[in-house]
Every structure is written in structure tokens, then in C-alpha cells.
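ok trying this again, last paste got cut off
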Amino acid sequence: MFFYLLLALFGCMTGITAVLFGFGGGFVVVPLLYHMLMVGHRADDPIGQSAMHIAVATSTCVMIVNALIATGKHHRAGHLIRHYVWPLGGFIGLGAIVGAVAAMWASGELIRFAFITYLGVTILDCLFRRGFLTQSDAVIPRRLGRAEVSGGGVGIGAIATFLGVGGSVMTVPLLRRCGLSMSKATSMANPLSLPVAVAGTLTYMAMAGFAEFDLGPWFVGYVDVLAFAVLTAGSMIGIRLATPWIGRIPDRVHAWVYIGLLVLVMLSMCVK
């Protein structure tokens, strides 16, 4: 019972972070579910052996719901700009398939190490490269270049799905350096997370057929259906709580809190 209450609480957090920071759920769901599965199952148990894959796959599934609802909220608030969403979203979807297939053949420990490493690099980049922490109101946002849309989109999709993080950790800094405010950059992260979530979930479900063991009746591929249901129920509450704050957080505060959340998640994944 405690397991599911904790999942519901953290599900609420995923809803809040999806609306306010563009995190579709991966940064909360992956560390939480990974640690809970490792505590509840022996290392030689099929679920214990697949803990990281289950965490990532369930995360992408939760992201579908969170990103869809958060996208609708931001659309109604008038924060979405079409040319930043498409065709970048299509290339992200292509990369997502590559990333999910690659993750299926990688060990859970490798994915965990990659997750920590990527967060560390992103945090340093946000702190020390100009354009993320400060933004001038006089700056006119620029459009994305062709290489950023095509090559960048495929890279974002592949890395995001491999790690189960939705892509916001890459799309938000990218759009921020195009001159967008934190409010608009995080708003765009939600529709851009959808191709990662859909492609990743379907690939994890399909590729799990190549696994050497059966995880049980409550799994569809590597997706933990019960955990998904509880997390999603909690996220609905979080989205409702966060909606009134859309566009109301000061830009610099928004940027610092974004980095702070990345640091917390990285530290949580460093603890085995």
C-alpha cells in the first residue's frame, strides 16, 4: 500500500513539473521507480534485473498522458509557437525509435550511468554557457536552423528515449538560446515530448518480446501497468494544481529552479 501511495505522490509531482518545466515525467518517474523496484526485488529476480528498463519504459508511457494534457493547457494559454514545434517534432520521433531500440540492447547499469552523465553535462552547460540563466526582453527570438531541426531533432529523440526523459532537458536549453522566455520554452517542451513518449512506449512494448524472461501479468512489454495507472492518477492532480501558475513565475527564478530540479534528480540517481 505504501508503494502505491508514494507512487501517487510522485505522480502528482510529475504533473506539476510537466506543466511548469516541460518534464513529461521521466525525471521524477525514472529515479523513483528504479529505486523502488531495486528495493522490492532481488538482484537475480527478473524485475530486479530489468529495473532500469521498466523505469524508462513506464516513464515514456506516463509521458504520453502528461504531455498531451500539458500541451492542451499551454495551447489555451497561447504559449505554443508552431514553427518551433514542427518539423522538429517529426525528427525527434525518428530519433526516438533509434533510442528505444538501442536501450533494449543496453544494460540497465549503462543506461543509469548515461542518465547521470547526461544530466551532469546539461547542468554545467546551463550554468556556464550564455543565454540560459539570463534573457533580455529586447532579444528577438530566432528560428531554428535546418541542422538544428534535422540532426538536432534526431539526436534529441534518440538520447531522450534511451534515457526515458522526454527531451525537455535538451529542447528547453535549445529554445532558450533561441531567445524564448522560460515560460514559452518549457511550454514547447510538452508537444516536443509527445513523439518521444509514443515512439518510446511502442518500441519498448514490442521489443520486450525478445526478453529472456516473463515479468508477470501486470506488464505490457516493459511497461508496469499498475505503476502507470497510479502515477497517471496522481499526475492529474498535479496538473490541476500547477495550471494557475502558467506564465506567472519570474523568468530568472524559473531558470534557476529548472537547474535545481536537474541537480536533485542527478543526485538521486547517484545513490544505488
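PB: full thing came through this time. The longest helix spans residues 51-76.
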